[in-house]
Design goal:
Blueprint (H helix, E strand, L loop, with lengths): L3 E3 H8 L3 H11 L7 E3 H7 L9 H12 L14 H40 L3 H22 L5 H15 E7 L4 E5 L4 H7 L17 E6 L2 E3 L9 H5 L2 E3 L3 E3 L3 E4 L12 E12 L4 E7 L13 E5 L5 E5 L9 E7 L5 H7 L6 E8 L12 E6 L3 H14 L5 E6 L7 H12 L3 E6 L5 H11 L7 E7 H13 L7 E6 L1
Parallel strand pairs: 3-9, 16-17, 16-19, 17-18, 19-20
Antiparallel strand pairs: 1-2, 3-4, 5-7, 5-9, 6-8, 10-11, 10-15, 11-14, 12-13, 12-15
Helix pairs in contact: 1-2, 4-5, 4-7, 5-6, 5-7, 13-14
Length: 488
């Protein structure tokens, strides 16, 4: 009996990104059905899958290490991580043997039925010969059962442990899928996966994150002030911010699929810190109230207004997955009243935030390589896009070209290098501060000569970006795959 896996789960088992798996399926012409792939096809695509190295168990060990102990041990108290890991390894070995036996038995039953049907149509002597042959075949198979394990059984056992460590959640009607790990709520896990579920406060006060459980089991992990009616509870509604998945779950939930789906918001934020990152750029961290969180898409901007009335539109320099803690890059330009008012303020001062706005967004369904070019302040939206691209794990390859005045080794350079070190499909180039658009395009074309087959995102000073985009068009970049954001 064939086993089908969702592409997200199959990518995890194979140890590759979802984008890389989809590219392999396309190149090999492998069949898929309703977003799923057969285990045999997965092993055909990745025969080198290392079953012995189990990232599922490694991830469980990290979750256990980060977990906070309970105050009082009870029946549900977990053993030490080393003990639990040892028991799970034993469980995995038993499961592999059991699944191997089941696979073999299914094959034997099918073979026996087919051969008996053939023998029944023959002579009595042929029937006796077939019966004797089948008897020998069955004894050999039974002797072999305890000594071997097939790769499909190993993958089945690995998938079973993956289900212990993380539950899969599928959203209706979009069909999007994400995983819930550790103590994350449904909402937290969805945001970390780059999805845009409806929510307001993320703390159980407003009820905007209400979802309906169509199948599977969830568990309440924190109390909430919003009251669901008895009728809503009977219908399966829960708050995504206050529940986690116990088993694989199918949810009915609203999502923002385009920028126009997001509501206009006005939030008064608190200034938390100011940190210079170069001679002319400062990283500003702000926090929204606990009862009001900014909903935005990676790459978008908001309008900020200081207490004394100065305003400016800035790109959010952080990921939508942590929308209470916002980051912005502010250019310190002489005579800029907004910058002086904001950067001369003290921690705790309030800033009015309005938005979001802008169409400089990641093409989430694109499978092509994604090229990012960031100049100076343009690193703010580019950083947000990259963190979102890493979350959804769709693009086959990500490449960043960064031009800035600061020396290697500063805050952002270290961040980019950490992406490069941690991700197999991420590349990073820190280019000379005075690099002209043509020089950068030449560097890009050396590594990606077929630039027309790439999604290109460029952000920076208006004249620089406009020149780069115009030159890229003449060198084969496709209009629908060129995305830009400019800063005055």
């Amino acid at each position: 009996m064939s086993q089908h896996l969702s592409l997200s789960r199959a990518a995890r088992l194979a140890g590759v990104s979802r984008g890389e798996l989809q590219e392999k399926i396309r190149c090999m012409g492998l069949p898929t059905f309703e977003g799923k792939i057969d285990v045999e096809q997965l092993l055909e695509a990745y025969p080198e899958v290392d079953i012995d190295r189990d990232p599922v168990l490694e991830r469980l060990q990290l979750i256990m290490a980060d977990a906070r102990p309970k105050k009082h041990k009870g029946d549900n108290w977990l053993p030490e991580p080393e003990v639990l890991m040892s028991r799970l390894h034993d469980f995995q070995r038993v499961l592999i043997r059991t699944k191997t036996a089941l696979n073999t038995a299914e094959q034997l039953v099918s073979e026996v039925a087919e051969r008996l049907e053939t023998a029944a149509r023959g002579t009595e002597a042929e029937l006796r010969a077939q019966t004797q042959d089948l008897s020998v075949r069955l004894r050999q198979s039974l002797e072999k059962l305890g000594r071997s394990a097939d790769r499909e059984a190993e993958l089945f056992a690995k998938d079973a442990l993956l289900r212990i460590v993380s539950a899969s959640v599928r959203i209706a009607p979009s069909g999007h899928e994400f995983f819930v790990e550790g103590s994350d709520s449904l909402l937290e896990a969805a945001l970390k996966s780059g999805l845009h579920l409806d929510y307001g406060c993320s703390s159980g006060n407003c009820g905007a994150c209400r979802v309906r459980v169509l199948s599977g089991r969830v568990r309440k992990i924190r109390a909430h002030d919003y009251v669901l009616s008895g009728q809503e509870q009977d219908a399966g509604f829960v708050l995504a911010c206050s529940n986690t998945a116990v088993t694989d779950v199918l949810l009915e939930a609203s999502e923002a699929l385009t920028a126009t789906d997001l509501p206009h918001q006005e939030i008064r934020c608190s200034l938390r810190s100011i940190e210079p990152v170069s001679d002319d750029l400062t990283l500003v961290r702000m926090q929204t109230p606990r009862t009001q969180t900014l909903r935005f898409m990676a790459g978008q901007r908001v309008k900020l207004t200081t207490e004394n009335g100065f305003t400016r539109s800035l790109a959010v320099a952080s990921c939508p997955c942590d929308a209470r803690n916002l980051q912005f890059l502010v250019s310190r330009k002489p005579g800029n009243d907004f910058c002086e008012a904001l950067l001369s303020g003290t921690d705790g001062q309030t800033v009015l935030l309005e938005g979001p706005e802008g169409e400089f967004l990641l093409q989430e369904e694109a499978r092509e390589p994604a090229l990012f070019v960031a100049v100076g302040e343009g690193f703010a939206p580019i950083r947000s896009l990259i963190e979102h691209a890493i979350s959804i794990d769709n693009a086959a390859r990500l490449q960043l070209y960064r031009i800035d005045e600061n020396r290697p080794g500063n805050l952002f350079d270290n961040l980019c290098r950490s992406w490069h070190d941690a991700l197999d499909n991420f590349g990073y180039r820190l280019l000379e501060p005075a690099s002209a658009p043509g020089d950068v395009l030449h560097q890009v074309l050396q590594e990606f000569p077929q630039i027309g087959e790439c999604q290109v995102y460029v952000a920076g000073p208006a004249h620089w970006v406009e020149t780069f985009v115009a030159d890229a068009r003449t060198r084969g970049a496709q209009e629908q795959r060129l995305h830009s954001d400019v800063f005055e």
